[in-house]
Here is the input.
Amino acid sequence: VIGIVGGSGDFGQGLAGRLRAHGEEVLIGSRTPRGEFVSNAEACDRSDIIFFSVPPASIEGMARDLQFHLAGKIVVSVATSVVFRDGRPVAEAGPLSLAELVARAAPDARVVSGFHTVSAKTFAEVDRRLDEDVLLCGDDPEAKARVSELGEMVVEGRAVDAGPLVVSRWLETITAVLLNVNRRYHAHAGIRITGLP
Ligand SMILES: NC(=O)c1ccc[n+]([C@@H]2O[C@H](COP(=O)([O-])OP(=O)(O)OC[C@H]3O[C@@H](n4cnc5c(N)ncnc54)[C@H](OP(=O)(O)O)[C@@H]3O)[C@@H](O)[C@H]2O)c1
Here is the structure.
Protein backbone atom coordinates (compact mmCIF):
# COMPACT_ATOMS: atom_id res chain seq x y z
CA VAL A 1 0.00 0.00 0.00
CA ILE A 2 1.20 3.51 -0.82
CA GLY A 3 0.21 6.36 1.48
CA ILE A 4 0.20 10.05 0.56
CA VAL A 5 0.40 12.51 3.44
CA GLY A 6 -1.30 15.71 2.22
CA GLY A 7 -2.63 13.69 -0.72
CA SER A 8 -5.66 15.97 -1.08
CA GLY A 9 -3.56 18.57 -2.98
CA ASP A 10 -2.96 18.66 -6.73
CA PHE A 11 0.32 16.79 -6.55
CA GLY A 12 -1.05 14.03 -4.32
CA GLN A 13 -4.20 13.64 -6.39
CA GLY A 14 -2.20 13.30 -9.59
CA LEU A 15 0.16 10.79 -8.02
CA ALA A 16 -2.72 8.76 -6.58
CA GLY A 17 -4.57 8.68 -9.90
CA ARG A 18 -1.52 7.57 -11.83
CA LEU A 19 -0.49 4.90 -9.33
CA ARG A 20 -4.04 3.53 -9.15
CA ALA A 21 -4.14 3.34 -12.93
CA HIS A 22 -1.24 0.86 -12.57
CA GLY A 23 -3.12 -1.22 -10.02
CA GLU A 24 -1.42 0.14 -6.89
CA GLU A 25 -3.48 0.53 -3.72
CA VAL A 26 -3.23 4.13 -2.54
CA LEU A 27 -4.38 5.70 0.72
CA ILE A 28 -4.80 9.46 0.80
CA GLY A 29 -4.01 11.16 4.09
CA SER A 30 -5.39 14.50 5.22
CA ARG A 31 -5.51 16.66 8.35
CA THR A 32 -9.29 16.50 8.01
CA PRO A 33 -10.28 12.89 7.21
CA ARG A 34 -13.47 12.75 5.16
CA GLY A 35 -14.86 10.54 2.43
CA GLU A 36 -11.96 8.63 0.88
CA PHE A 37 -9.39 10.67 2.87
CA VAL A 38 -8.06 8.99 6.01
CA SER A 39 -5.96 10.71 8.68
CA ASN A 40 -2.31 11.23 7.83
CA ALA A 41 -1.35 8.91 10.72
CA GLU A 42 -3.61 6.13 9.41
CA ALA A 43 -2.22 6.56 5.88
CA CYS A 44 1.27 6.04 7.33
CA ASP A 45 0.31 3.09 9.56
CA ARG A 46 -1.34 1.17 6.71
CA SER A 47 1.33 1.86 4.06
CA ASP A 48 4.89 0.75 3.48
CA ILE A 49 5.81 3.64 1.17
CA ILE A 50 4.63 7.10 2.17
CA PHE A 51 4.83 10.21 -0.01
CA PHE A 52 5.08 13.47 1.90
CA SER A 53 3.16 15.92 -0.28
CA VAL A 54 2.57 18.88 2.04
CA PRO A 55 3.75 22.50 1.64
CA PRO A 56 7.48 22.96 2.32
CA ALA A 57 6.95 25.10 5.42
CA SER A 58 5.02 22.30 7.15
CA ILE A 59 7.00 19.24 6.08
CA GLU A 60 9.47 19.15 8.98
CA GLY A 61 6.76 19.57 11.62
CA MET A 62 4.62 16.94 9.90
CA ALA A 63 7.54 14.48 9.91
CA ARG A 64 8.14 15.15 13.61
CA ASP A 65 4.45 14.66 14.45
CA LEU A 66 4.31 11.40 12.47
CA GLN A 67 7.78 10.07 13.31
CA PHE A 68 6.55 7.00 15.21
CA HIS A 69 4.21 6.14 12.33
CA LEU A 70 7.12 6.37 9.89
CA ALA A 71 9.65 4.13 11.63
CA GLY A 72 11.14 1.59 9.21
CA LYS A 73 9.04 2.89 6.30
CA ILE A 74 10.11 4.40 3.01
CA VAL A 75 9.25 8.12 3.04
CA VAL A 76 9.40 10.10 -0.21
CA SER A 77 9.87 13.84 0.15
CA VAL A 78 8.58 15.70 -2.93
CA ALA A 79 8.65 19.18 -1.39
CA THR A 80 10.44 21.91 -3.30
CA SER A 81 12.05 24.96 -1.74
CA VAL A 82 10.25 27.38 -4.06
CA VAL A 83 8.72 30.53 -2.65
CA PHE A 84 7.13 33.42 -4.53
CA ARG A 85 8.82 36.85 -4.29
CA ASP A 86 6.93 39.72 -5.91
CA GLY A 87 4.98 37.10 -7.83
CA ARG A 88 8.13 35.39 -9.16
CA PRO A 89 9.20 31.87 -8.23
CA VAL A 90 12.57 31.71 -6.46
CA ALA A 91 14.27 28.87 -4.60
CA GLU A 92 15.51 29.47 -1.10
CA ALA A 93 17.70 26.56 -0.06
CA GLY A 94 18.56 26.40 3.63
CA PRO A 95 21.67 24.72 5.05
CA LEU A 96 19.71 21.44 5.04
CA SER A 97 17.31 20.35 2.33
CA LEU A 98 13.65 19.73 3.19
CA ALA A 99 14.25 15.98 2.72
CA GLU A 100 17.17 16.11 5.18
CA LEU A 101 14.92 17.93 7.65
CA VAL A 102 12.42 15.07 7.27
CA ALA A 103 15.20 12.52 7.86
CA ARG A 104 16.28 14.42 10.99
CA ALA A 105 12.72 14.73 12.30
CA ALA A 106 11.89 11.05 11.62
CA PRO A 107 15.26 9.34 12.18
CA ASP A 108 13.96 5.79 11.67
CA ALA A 109 12.37 6.55 8.30
CA ARG A 110 14.09 5.53 5.05
CA VAL A 111 13.98 8.88 3.27
CA VAL A 112 14.12 9.27 -0.50
CA SER A 113 13.79 12.67 -2.17
CA GLY A 114 12.38 13.08 -5.66
CA PHE A 115 9.70 14.02 -8.21
CA HIS A 116 10.43 17.76 -7.81
CA THR A 117 10.46 18.34 -11.56
CA VAL A 118 6.98 16.93 -12.20
CA SER A 119 4.39 19.72 -12.45
CA ALA A 120 1.43 19.15 -10.15
CA LYS A 121 -0.83 20.49 -12.91
CA THR A 122 0.22 17.98 -15.56
CA PHE A 123 0.44 15.24 -12.93
CA ALA A 124 -3.22 15.82 -12.06
CA GLU A 125 -4.24 15.37 -15.72
CA VAL A 126 -3.99 11.64 -15.24
CA ASP A 127 -4.57 10.73 -18.89
CA ARG A 128 -1.80 13.04 -20.13
CA ARG A 129 1.50 11.33 -21.05
CA LEU A 130 4.41 12.73 -19.07
CA ASP A 131 7.34 12.73 -21.46
CA GLU A 132 9.92 13.30 -18.75
CA ASP A 133 12.15 11.66 -16.14
CA VAL A 134 11.96 11.72 -12.37
CA LEU A 135 15.13 12.53 -10.44
CA LEU A 136 15.69 10.82 -7.10
CA CYS A 137 18.28 10.84 -4.37
CA GLY A 138 18.71 9.08 -1.05
CA ASP A 139 21.09 7.14 1.16
CA ASP A 140 19.18 3.81 1.18
CA PRO A 141 19.73 1.97 -2.13
CA GLU A 142 16.86 -0.49 -1.59
CA ALA A 143 14.40 2.30 -0.77
CA LYS A 144 15.59 4.27 -3.78
CA ALA A 145 15.13 1.26 -6.05
CA ARG A 146 11.55 0.73 -4.84
CA VAL A 147 10.68 4.41 -5.34
CA SER A 148 12.30 4.28 -8.79
CA GLU A 149 9.84 1.53 -9.77
CA LEU A 150 6.95 3.80 -8.78
CA GLY A 151 8.52 6.75 -10.61
CA GLU A 152 8.74 4.74 -13.81
CA MET A 153 5.04 3.88 -13.50
CA VAL A 154 3.98 7.53 -13.51
CA VAL A 155 6.23 9.07 -16.17
CA GLU A 156 7.19 7.92 -19.66
CA GLY A 157 10.88 8.46 -18.97
CA ARG A 158 13.09 6.86 -16.40
CA ALA A 159 13.88 7.26 -12.74
CA VAL A 160 17.37 8.75 -12.59
CA ASP A 161 19.44 8.19 -9.45
CA ALA A 162 21.03 11.56 -8.65
CA GLY A 163 23.02 10.28 -5.67
CA PRO A 164 22.86 10.56 -1.87
CA LEU A 165 20.24 12.49 0.11
CA VAL A 166 22.49 15.54 0.34
CA VAL A 167 21.84 16.14 -3.39
CA SER A 168 18.27 17.03 -2.45
CA ARG A 169 19.51 20.55 -1.62
CA TRP A 170 19.94 21.15 -5.34
CA LEU A 171 17.08 18.97 -6.60
CA GLU A 172 14.59 20.93 -4.49
CA THR A 173 15.61 24.17 -6.19
CA ILE A 174 15.32 22.97 -9.83
CA THR A 175 11.58 23.58 -9.68
CA ALA A 176 12.22 27.34 -9.56
CA VAL A 177 14.05 27.09 -12.90
CA LEU A 178 11.20 25.09 -14.42
CA LEU A 179 8.58 27.55 -13.15
CA ASN A 180 10.48 30.40 -14.78
CA VAL A 181 10.70 28.37 -18.03
CA ASN A 182 6.97 27.69 -17.80
CA ARG A 183 6.26 31.37 -17.44
CA ARG A 184 8.39 32.21 -20.49
CA TYR A 185 6.87 29.49 -22.72
CA HIS A 186 3.36 29.24 -21.19
CA ALA A 187 4.09 25.55 -20.63
CA HIS A 188 4.34 22.86 -17.97
CA ALA A 189 7.88 21.72 -18.67
CA GLY A 190 9.61 18.61 -17.32
CA ILE A 191 13.19 17.35 -17.46
CA ARG A 192 14.87 14.54 -19.43
CA ILE A 193 18.44 13.53 -18.58
CA THR A 194 20.39 12.53 -21.69
CA GLY A 195 23.65 10.65 -22.26
CA LEU A 196 23.00 7.89 -19.71
CA PRO A 197 23.88 4.28 -20.53
N1 LIG B 1 3.00 22.27 -7.44
C1 LIG B 1 3.92 21.65 -8.17
O1 LIG B 1 3.99 21.76 -9.42
C2 LIG B 1 4.91 20.75 -7.48
C3 LIG B 1 5.86 20.07 -8.24
C4 LIG B 1 6.72 19.20 -7.58
C5 LIG B 1 6.65 19.08 -6.20
N2 LIG B 1 5.74 19.81 -5.50
C6 LIG B 1 5.69 19.68 -4.05
O2 LIG B 1 4.63 18.80 -3.76
C7 LIG B 1 4.08 19.15 -2.48
C8 LIG B 1 2.58 19.23 -2.63
O3 LIG B 1 2.23 20.16 -3.62
P1 LIG B 1 0.71 20.64 -3.78
O4 LIG B 1 0.71 21.66 -4.84
O5 LIG B 1 -0.19 19.45 -3.88
O6 LIG B 1 0.52 21.34 -2.34
P2 LIG B 1 -0.75 21.93 -1.61
O7 LIG B 1 -1.97 21.68 -2.39
O8 LIG B 1 -0.44 23.34 -1.19
O9 LIG B 1 -0.77 21.07 -0.26
C9 LIG B 1 -1.00 19.69 -0.27
C10 LIG B 1 -1.83 19.31 0.95
O10 LIG B 1 -1.08 19.57 2.15
C11 LIG B 1 -1.99 19.80 3.21
N3 LIG B 1 -1.58 21.02 3.92
C12 LIG B 1 -1.76 22.30 3.53
N4 LIG B 1 -1.25 23.16 4.44
C13 LIG B 1 -0.72 22.38 5.42
C14 LIG B 1 -0.06 22.68 6.64
N5 LIG B 1 0.20 23.94 7.04
N6 LIG B 1 0.34 21.63 7.41
C15 LIG B 1 0.09 20.35 7.02
N7 LIG B 1 -0.54 20.01 5.87
C16 LIG B 1 -0.94 21.02 5.09
C17 LIG B 1 -3.38 19.98 2.60
O11 LIG B 1 -4.11 18.79 2.84
P3 LIG B 1 -5.22 18.68 4.01
O12 LIG B 1 -5.83 20.04 4.19
O13 LIG B 1 -6.18 17.68 3.41
O14 LIG B 1 -4.49 18.19 5.20
C18 LIG B 1 -3.10 20.11 1.12
O15 LIG B 1 -4.13 19.58 0.29
C19 LIG B 1 4.73 20.47 -2.06
O16 LIG B 1 5.71 20.22 -1.09
C20 LIG B 1 5.37 20.97 -3.33
O17 LIG B 1 6.56 21.70 -3.07
C21 LIG B 1 4.86 20.60 -6.10
